[in-house]
Amino acid sequence: MPLFDVYPLYNVTPVSGKDMYVYDEKGVEYLDLYGGHAVISIGHSHPKYVKAITNQVSKLGFYSNAIQNPLQVELADKIEKLSGCKGYELFFCNSGAEANENALKLASFKTGKARVIAFNNSFHGRTSAAVAATDNKNIVAPINAQQQVTFLALNDIEGVKREVEKGDVCAVIVEFIQGVGGLDQGTAAFFEQVDALCKANNTYFIADEVQSGYGRSGKFFAFQYYNVTPEVISIAKGMGNGFPIGGILIHPNIEAKHGMLGTTFGGNHLACAAGLAVLNTIEEEKLIDNVNVISEYFISIAKTIPQIKTIKGKGLMIGLEFDFEIGDLRKKLIYEHHIFTGGASNKKLIRILPPLTIKKVHVNQFFEALKKTLVPIEVEK
């Protein structure tokens, strides 16, 4: 049976990985500066991670949410401790799309309203409400388009005010650093005014931290750079280091009701073991401190390269923007220098989303390869 052909594939077949590197079936080593869409947070095959999920699956891999699962409580307590989000409650699911779907559903349940405000170039997932709030008409089917979503420009505070004050908006959903959209950010004043408008108009402010969360921005959550208090925070990608797990943090003012949200696989024993291994490693290895050290070093070098016109993002969620489309550049980095990087809807921007364990030597390896690759491109121009 052939695979349904929805992914354009690079001709690389990874079969194993260790920390910052993956290896193909021929033993060729690739430096991973993309982490499989920012998923690999503590490095490939981290020994503590491997041990934790191996031990758990040897005992019990799964049972439903109809029984007690102390691992869920332990993981929730660990997230509260490391994130500083005191008093929030946690609902587990399996992915970022599912996290945002439940965040939007919860907002609609609790406010009794249906319309959503999202922002230009946003990406929130591929499930029904989440994809409707994603600014990409190519992936929104007619059944999704029935959702009521208004798209505005980042920093358009007058637009947000006008729409929210109409009284029918259940949620404003925002990436504090846009991912697929190209690493753009709103201003502090914008985010803080949006938060105030939401509070004044019975509207939920949803922080989509699926890609920017878990230390990637240099803080545990990217919204923590601002004076805002989201009603709901969605998390996923870096949460399980490759094991599917997601969730939403829910403000303590929001009351739960049996049956309101549900999931079969969310928060299963194996997922929680993976999640705990990730957080324990982030804490023990001081990986958020490392994010900030390496980010400063990376950006200092990027500023010396004249072909890089703009540096976007925070922490280890970095965008390098050129004045030409970078598809061929990324292919050269993969096939000639064996380095994985990411693209974006902005075709002139490379996304850098490495494991949080990255060291300066890896940064040097990247920039040495980038400089060699840029020389022939300059000649062609």
From TrEMBL:
Cofactors (names): pyridoxal 5'-phosphate
Entry GO MF terms: identical protein binding; pyridoxal phosphate binding; transaminase activity
Keyword Nucleotide-binding listed: no
Keywords assigned by UniProt, alphabetized: Aminotransferase, Pyridoxal phosphate, Transferase
Xref: InterPro entries: Aminotrans_3 (IPR005814), Class-III_PLP-dep_AT (IPR050103), PyrdxlP-dep_Trfase (IPR015424), PyrdxlP-dep_Trfase_major (IPR015421), PyrdxlP-dep_Trfase_small (IPR015422)
One Pfam family named in its UniProt record: Aminotran_3
Protein name: Aspartate aminotransferase family protein
Organism: Confluentibacter flavum
